[in-house]
Amino acid sequence: MISRLSILLSFFFIIIFASCSDDAIGDAMMMPEEMETENFVIYTGSSIAFSKADESDPSEEANQDRITDNVWITRGNEGGQIFNIKQESSANKDASPVGTEWAIGKTDEIASLDFKPFRNAVGSPQDVVGKDLVLHLIDEDEYLQVKFTSWTMKKAGGFAYERATK
Questions:
Q1: What is the DSSP letter of 55?
Q2: Planar angle of CA 141, 39, 66, nearest 5 degrees
Q3: What contacts 56, CB < 8 A, 6 or more positions away?
Q4: In 35-158, which ranges are E strands?
Q5: What pLDDT was estimated at residue 38?
């Protein structure tokens, strides 16, 4: 009986291994993090600085960081958080900026980051200065490194950051 079981198990393993392609075997041997990072589109160009001065008009192009055709980041003069003026008229602390997700970390850690709406990711926006963030542009499915360098408190609307370009 043991010999029959051994023969059946051997036959089973031969069938399993014979049915696997080289690609399937290679994928099975990859680390999960390696598999996940293969498909991320990450901005690796030079870093640029963007700033919106206190009390400047958020509807003017000069006061919007037009990252893509769908994502134009700015901040209202009533304070609050940043928003995407291309897709929303003002900030919503639960969802803004629309079309984006954020995570604390760096792009080289992307597979392990937890992306959320801006406020959920950073907590209080005024505490974001100096933190390494990764911005996910949802519609484009692209990622870029961002670091806020200033955040005006009270109701002035100023902020600044550095970010990667394509």
A1: T
A2: 25
A3: 62, 63, 77, 157, 158
A4: 41-42, 47-52, 65-66, 72-75, 82-84, 100-104, 132-137, 142-151
A5: 67
Q: Are the C-beta atoms of residues 137 and 103 closer than 8 Å to each other?
A: no
Backbone angles phi, psi at 67, to 5 degrees: -70, -45
Query: What token pair was written down for 111?
Result: 């597979």
Which CA distances in Å does 34 have to 24, 30, 39?
15, 6, 10
Mean pLDDT of 4-13: 50
Tens digits of per-residue pLDDT, 61-75? 999 999 999 999 999
Cα–Cα distance for residue pair 116/94, rounded to 1 Å: 10
- At 160 the three-state DSSP class reads strand
Nearest to 58 by CA among 155, 163, 126: 155
Separation between Cα atoms, residue 76 and residue 57, nearest integer Å:
8
Cα(136)–Cα(44) distance, integer angstroms: 14
Does the predicted model carry a pTM greater than 0.70?
A: yes
